[in-house]
Amino acid sequence: MTAIETDELPEDAGWGPTSRQVARNLKRLRKARGMSTTRLSAALRDDAGHAIPATGITRIEKGQRRVDTDDLVAFALVFNVSPLTLLLPATASEAPAPLTDKRTVTSSTAWYWGVGRRPAVDWEPGAIADLAGPGVDPAIASEAYEREEEYVRQQAAYTALALPPELRRVTDNHAVRIARQLLELVEDLATPEPGVDREGQAARARTARRRYESLGIELDELQERFDRRQALHPGLGFEQFRDRLAVEGSAGEQTSEDEPGGK
Predict the structure, then answer these.
(1) Coil, strand or helix: which one is 77?
(2) Contact 78/41 with Cβ under 8 angstroms?
(3) For the residues of 211-243, what is the DSSP string, one character each?
(4) What are phi and psi of 14, to 5 degrees?
(5) Over the stretch 39-85, which tens digit does the pLDDT of each residue have?
């Protein structure tokens, strides 16, 4: 068979954008690890118990052989990466990332979707907050609110099944959601793309500030729930509280006989 470049597969070859992405990433990761196709083939056999000959690896990279799920996991294990590193774009930015022939999102959204943080929808949570106030076209604001509501519905459906229950309990926590939204905003602010819109970044900064303040409120509530010292000294005056802390501090410095180093 004549070699076909990965990015130039004909439509009738049956290769979708994700298959092309896997082939590109396979070649990229193999070179980054400094591995020849022969060495990679040996590592797949010895480390992952999965046999793909060197010629098979070459055919994958040239778009002549598809990768199944067993291949994907074996490659990820040998490269010491997540399977997502093979499935998703090599960058996380505003660049388009085709997931299927009919669904394209930014590469940032693709990664957030892949790691279980949001659905594959290009919509920034909380974006409507910057459309409130004078001078905003009511029609634009109304459309944004509708999009926000739809995003919330999709987010709820996504988190219901995207993660196992043990991890879902963490992601469903309100404080965790706010912290992650804040992290995403700070990441965008700290590493802006060339030629980024300054007004858009200013809006992100305002949203980040609101998320920061909201997170502070959530942390205050968590501290009140778990801070035993605060619960042990209700209603104490400053002088009493200071004396009580001094007593507790001196007691804490004593080593228990049951602890290592105790007498």
Answers:
(1) helix
(2) no
(3) HHHHHHHHHHHHHHHH-HHHHHSTT--HHHHHH
(4) 80, 15
(5) 999 999 999 999 999 999 999 999 899 999 999 999 999 999 999 99
